[in-house]
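Ticket #4471: structure output looks truncated?

Reporter: J.K.
Steps to reproduce: submitted the chain below (396 residues) through the standard prediction queue, then opened the result file.
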Amino acid sequence: MSTQEIMELTEKYIMKTYGRLPLALVKGQGSRVWDAEGNEYLDFVGGLAVDSLGHCHPAVVDAVTEQARTLMHVSNLYHIEPQAHLARLLVENSCCGKAFFCNSGAEANEAAIKLARKYAKFKRGQDKFEIITALKSFHGRTLATITATGQAKFQQGFEPLPEGFKYVPFNDLAALEEAIGPHTCAVMLEPVQGEGGVNAAHQSYLEGVKEICDQKGLLLIFDEVQCGLGRTGKLFAYQQYGVEPHIITLAKALGGGFPIGAMLAQDEVAQAFQPGDHASTFGGNPLACAAGVAVMETMLEEGFMAKVNAAGLYFKKWLDVLAGKYNFVKEVRGMGFLLGMELNVEGAGIVAKCQEKGLLINCVNGSTLRFIPPLNVERAQIDRAVEILDGVLSKV
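Returned output as attached by the reporter:
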């Protein structure tokens, strides 16, 4: 089918929940994708940080293919071998003691919200339910997680929203401490905000938040759905700061392209969930967990994260060069391969021009270009992406 034919089917049969670009991608390999007409693109969107190892990574393809021949789904009423294996890899390489599996980042954050409230009611009283989040945060598309999200644009039209959430400016420790009230049970933050414009937490801020939570008996939840699993150059984003949360949420990169989400929690906190408290029919199914195991084993290979760190710094260096070259670039920020370039002009036209030249990027908040390529992108591909971006920016 041609791009036009695919677009016509989409228009006719699919709900308009996305403002789609006029592009139909039909094939991917590594950091490259091809459209229905055979045109090749460098993919620096990476399925919105999902394609952590690039498209069709052999380890993931082999794992999913073999598991599909063996066992695709059984209920969580039974023990599931790939699920147990993946849980061990996540727990043994993190500060947490137990894992819960689901299908998406929103579901992982829903689970974290429920666990935080259940734990707080058990430990501190039935009136503890409020969760403080940050402005410009993004935590998902369910009713609870859009309410947790500190951006009104995602909430409009879905009122009344669930109660129990309060917002404070990001990186403002005094505002956070002032917001804590008699009903507060947890603080939920992204170490690096992705959808909010690629905003990294300050070291002193996260250290201060952790100290406040410990002093007041609050749980600290890190939403690492986008910034976790190698994206910042460490396996977990919290490891960049040396600040250990009580709960971590994951998704996107975990399946290397296959849908899976996870919530990790420290042992004491995890005990608040008992049989019947929470569940997911498809969560932790053999197929998804086999993909997750392949991703984790690849990321844990010796030298993998060192290469991500080095390549991320290399890419940021060249983005900084472009920022110095063009006066409409306000700032380059982020960590590893979660980088943003904030502009004084609208970014949509730049995204479109880059696409015409063979580079896929995206724009958040109207004027921040976001770069989230596969973690194993090649240096030559980074060079080519910078060359295309430079050429497009020169015409602005």
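Triage note (M.O.): checked the attachment and the full token line is present. The mean pLDDT is 97.
Status: closed, working as intended.
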